Amino acid sequence: MTTINKQRINLKVNGEEWEGWLDPRENLLKVLREEIGLTGTKEGCGRGDCGACTVLLEDKAVNSCLVPVGKAHGKNITTIEGLSRGEELHPLQEAFVKEGAVQCGFCTPGMIMSAYALLKINQQPSSYAVKKAISGNLCRCTGYTQIEKAVLAAAAKISESGN
Amino acid sequence: MTYINATTIAQALGALREQKGKARVIAGGTDLYLQQLPEILVDISGIDKMRQIQITGEILELGSGITHAQTFASSLLQERATCLSEACSYVGSPQIRNLGTLGGNVVNAAPAADAAVGLVTMDARAILVDCEGGNKEAPLEELYQGYNRTTLDNSREILMALKFTVHHPGEGSSYQRFSSRKSLSLPIVSVGAWAKVKDKQISGVRLVAAPLNPSPTRLRRVEKELEGAFASPETYRKAGELAREEAVTRDSPLRGSGEYRRHLVGVGVERALREAVYRAMGIPSEEKAGDYYQ
Fold this sequence. Notes:
The complex is a heterodimer of chains A (163) and B (294). Chain A has 163 residues and is of the alpha+beta class. Chain A is built from 6 helices and 5 strands. Chain A has 2 domains: 7-82, Ubiquitin-like (UB roll), CATH 3.10.20; 91-161, [2Fe-2S]-binding domain (DNA polymerase, domain 1, Orthogonal Bundle). Chain A is globular. In chain B, the strands form 4 sheets. Chain B has a 5-stranded antiparallel sheet.
């Protein structure tokens, strides 16, 4: 018997349909980076400890390194590339720049995606809610104060502009 | 290589039967994915029936596919299975809690699994179905067979649901956990307590500690001593002392010395029992669950 290692996988990434033949055990992170070419999502630990690879799966933050792509079949995925509108940055991205919440930048996409997941369900989060929301994301450069400030600033801006 | 996203229990069981022991069940996958994955996987996380919280009278049935995040967010569980809700709030990180399921937390059988401690504290029973059409119900504790091992054969069986009696008025529960960080950390010691209080007397109690053994461990001697005790700080302190005597804690390079951990079992029991009693009596709690998105 021949073993067919690949399966047809359909994903909806940042609103766009993608289809490919893949080993369904391959992790979503690798597929995003190497098959689809979206390298904004980073690989840190590769085992669900650091949060650098955070993406949204059906609007919920997950570690893409822990998701076999077979599980994501037919699902909506949002990556950091899906946040800006053309050249216009998302308020979270803007706030991270403005508040100096980025140093080496490696944790930043994951941090922003965790914050984005929070703001989807809580538009006026407390500091505590922000801390909890990014508690699965490690930053080894800056400390977390500026990141927290940036998320709160973005939330305020989004509420003001009403979108 | 085949990855089957089952949408019904019948479909999942059918796939397991067809593969004759070669397939393996996967749910959230957060533990399983770090191991070598088998060729054939049956993903049960998309089965709606297994993601439901159903209450009939006082009996709650939780689909095993419910994630830790869902458990934590449920106001029903916060109020009527508080220790389980709190336990789930500590699992991994938000990202892990969005994927990981209650069933997976049990079946993976990690000795320190938070949700499993909460479930044993609620005296939960496991409902299992197998691909030959059989089904059985057993106390959760009986499912454990050793470190990271349960009696469940996940090439032919599915843990479908977990079932327990929710808090009645006059009952309460709490989960206390000690760890080196607030997030993404293993517990050094965790303790669950459930208490029933009538006329300021403890008329029923369950105390569970982990990780002491492969499964969450009931401290039955302490429970027995507490029957009929007056709900007072002295009782909680005494419970902690007795727990230190009953608990057998090993040295662990990850979690700390056995002596330190035994001390913490006592502190955990004292706090968890106090909180459980407060909640049973309707006294405002010193700690609060469910504030994640506030």
